[in-house]
Amino acid sequence: MSELRSDMIVNRWVIISPRRGARPHDYKNDERAKMQPGPCAFCPNHEHETGPETFAIREDGKLRGPCWRVRVVANKYPAVATDVESSDGLCVYSNGVFEGCKLPGFGSHEVVVETPDHYKTFTQLPMAQIEDVFKAYQARVTCLSQDKRFKFVQVFKNHGNAAGASMSHSHSQIIALPVVTKSMEEAVAGTKSYFERTHRCVLCDIIHQDLVTCRDRLVAESPFCIAVCPYAPCFPHETWILPRTHNSNFATVPADQINGAAKMLKTLLLKMEKAFHLPPYNFMLHTALLDDCHVPYYHWYIRIVPHLITVAGFELGSGCYINPVSPEDSAQLLSNTNVDDY
């Protein structure tokens, strides 16, 4: 039976409709992430082909050269750029109906090269390497937060062409903006409203609910975090990693908790690769606003979305997503998908 469910954080309705999953299809999308042959601009000894380096973790603490393990560089083809003059959040006036609707394209857009090995995917990296990637995320979020022109930062990974990746060498990205995006405004408003009503963090309450009250959406748990399929997911098998300890600011999370989240992320991605035959995917790291990053109502977390369906006209027209898999069924499938220890 179909259900309408509300995402209480962003006040958005979704339709959970398992019967949609039984529709006939005239075609199948068999696209998988295809590895292009190397070397590429992200490979060692090709450092001159990237944008300027902003951060790196190198062997034996060396400051430069091709001996890096993780490298962060300015995107050579950025969506926004720091060499554009900032207007300090004030709109540049356009003519006519669009008056007040334009700002210069100021911002920061960086690439996190996750490994020097061109042919290793994210899930093939050893845990120490993934932990280094998370250290790079923390270092760059910390640095960007010190620039008071930035209000919002998004760390994200696109894996596979269908998920938006333009290069197959394993990498993720970081974009910082002088404005707050609509979805982040909604998330802040929703979590703040819940806190004002209950004096509790909504994700802390979700963790308690999914661990103690009802474990139907629990996928995995560890001493540092849990993985759940959210109550009202937009996409089939969407999964969240929720740290057990409340902290709104990812940049200040202790190393043991960061490493625990990194291990959980690898576990979930391996489960998805096994269950769904190497799907394209995105993961997004959500942290509080940069100019108000220590708050009791926001809770940092990681959202993982495998690309298994196509967003169509109803979703684009209404903003209401149809999900053909209930999160309870997703959680059962993923929790029962066993992967090798690593």
UniProtKB/TrEMBL annotation:
Its cofactor is Zn(2+). Zn(2+) binds at residues 40, 43, 118, 169. Keywords: Carbohydrate metabolism, Metal-binding, Nucleotidyltransferase, Transferase, Zinc. This is Galactose-1-phosphate uridyl transferase N-terminal domain-containing protein. The keyword Nucleotidyltransferase applies. Binds 1 zinc ion per subunit. Pfam families: GalP_UDP_transf. The keyword Phosphoprotein does not apply. Gene3D superfamilies: HIT-like.
